[in-house]
Amino acid sequence: MNKNKLEAVTKLFEGSEIRSAWDSGKEDYYFSVVDVVKVLTESENPRHYWVVLKSRLKKEGSELVTTCDQLKLVLRYFRTA
Q: What is the mean pLDDT of residues 25-45?
């Protein structure tokens, strides 16, 4: 069982929020792809943009996209004493 602690962090990039989680065990960040797509493309519907992009990459034979389903990024904010 993975006992790494995930800490919710919201990063700002050019004034836009990007949801992320810090894995203290792996010392690695995980970012919301949809939030990154929104910032980089300024798309009105970043989730749809990402679905179309994944589909095109798959048709081209790209291995950049895994076959996993969309996962919900749950962020819980902790109060510090």
A: 88
